[in-house]
Write a structure and sequence with these properties.
Length: 106
């Protein structure tokens, strides 16, 4: 375990989280990512995910309140699908931890 991993453990990451981060790095075909660059990338993705969820919620709620009852179920399905996509594209749990880590380490 290197110093950066120890810093991550001291700042709220679990061993499982660090294992996930290493797994993401191993999947990289070019092998150019490091743990530090992945933490920075996830920190940036956090805001993208939050903004995406906020926009999706605003559009979805507008659609739910202004649509007739027959299309409200369709809006609900699209909202649920959008939330799932944003959650998996931006792993929000890890992104939040990376955001907190970068905020406290800067």
């Amino acid at each position: 375990m290197n110093d950066y991993e120890k810093k991550l453990l001291d700042n709220g990451f679990s061993g499982k989280d660090i294992g996930k981060l290493k797994g993401i790095i191993k999947k990289d075909q070019s092998q150019t990512d490091t743990l530090q660059s992945l933490v920075i990338d996830l920190n940036k993705r956090f805001w993208g995910g939050v903004i995406g969820l906020a926009l999706l919620a605003l559009v979805g709620l507008y659609g739910l309140f202004t649509a007739d009852k027959s299309s409200a179920f369709s809006y609900f399905i699209v909202l649920a699908f959008g939330i799932v996509v944003i959650y998996f594209v931006t792993p929000l749990n890890l992104a939040w931890k990376c955001h907190k880590f970068k905020k406290t380490s800067d």
